[in-house]
Amino acid sequence: MAEAGHDHRFACVSLVPLFAELSEADRRRIAEVAVTRRYARGEHVHRPGEESGLRIVHRGRVKVHRLTESGNDQLIRILLPGEFLGETTLLTGRPVDSWAEALETSEVCTVGSGSMQRLLREQPSVALRMLAGLSRRLDEAEQQMSAVTGTTVGRRLAEHLLELAAESGSASFRLPSTKKDLASYLGTTPETLSRRLGDLQDSGLVRLAGGGRVELLDPEGLRDYGR
Known about the structure:
Elements: H1 6-14, H2 24-32, E1 34-39, E2 44-46, E3 53-59, E4 62-67, E5 73-79, E6 84-85, H3 87-92, E7 99-102, E8 106-112, H4 113-122, H5 124-150, H6 153-168, E9 172-174, H7 179-186, H8 190-202, E10 206-208, E11 213-216, H9 219-224
Helix pairs in contact: 1-2, 4-5, 6-8, 7-8
């Protein structure tokens, strides 16, 4: 793994909405203390117990997951370029409690805990945006928990596919994770997930293709599916 140049780090830092309102000079200050590393597919970006730091995905995709008390692997989220992790540990001072794993060759910029703490003291607006982002993720987690306990697998899958289409800006997109990870995220098994995907295709709501590609044929029908 090799460290990239300053311009590369500046491009990485500039991707993040968290720093969008900072001046170019301030973003360059952050970039000066950032370290960019490349991770091969399957390589861990961080493990539980490691020191906190803000990690920004520059290229590739990173899976964040943790083990439940029952020993099951629970997917938390898939991070795409411009998204970040580690803000919770930065604010609490606790070590990392999850795994982050590259799903493909990925580049990640890391700003150490000490540098980020200084930035938050000097730039309160960044701290406020970080708190807003944390609140949004907490709300998403609460909605996901509510969905797992209060709706059917088919309904959760339909809603998730609609969300992925909205994020991609297209009715045709590639699933960002494996079926195993998607099943974990939706609180079901890979076998049940495959059956529900097949049901959606048989109903004419979606078309499934190789490589995890999905095309929404009837978004309105998908919105009503399982209600």
